[in-house]
Amino acid sequence: MKYYEAYENRYKTYHDQEKMAWAGDRPSYILSDLFEKYIKDKKVANIFEIGCGEGQNAIYLMQKGYNIDATDVSKEAINWCKKVALEKHLDPNKFFVLDALDSNLRKKYDLICSISTLHMLVLDEDRKKFLDFVYDHLAEDGLAIITIMGDGIEERNNSDITKSFNIVERVANGKAVSVAQTSCRIVNWKTFFKEISNSNLVVESHFVTNEISGFSSSMIVVLKRAN
To answer: Which pTM value belongs to this model?
Structure first.
């Protein structure tokens, strides 16, 4: 398995033991504001989420009337999303497994969003593949909203990907649980902008917020295709 698939083990362990979502069920409400700002007609806009995890953001936005295809590399996470969607009378088939580093959907979207996923990719080549996927699947006038952990200043990469899947103790929902170790790489604005440019994307706007659920500080960019 690839190092960034360690969340499959983490989700499965937590779901089996605790019978609840690892990341909780509170969405990042700031996304609603961004969607209202950038999507002119929610009824016709095709939206794609990369790395939806347990679906708290996608479910929330679906309930507000947005048409979203939501994906994650973790089969366990997608099964959880389908279960929650059914409970809330939403279409479970809008959730499906996908590895954005090794896939091509042959489809373009008006908006692509990825919330707190890219920082889990450590290797330069993997981060490039991720952003290339975004470029390849954006409509000509489409936009992408991407959030990553960080304050725009600090850079940090303490992840040893050879230790992915090792069992470590983490706290979720106020309780310590033994789960698989996962990866994380923090970049600053200079590095992030360079990565974005190298994938032929340009920044429409960017800012730092504390409104992304689960993180004290997150960087948000709104991107479009350079050409």
So the answer is: 0.95
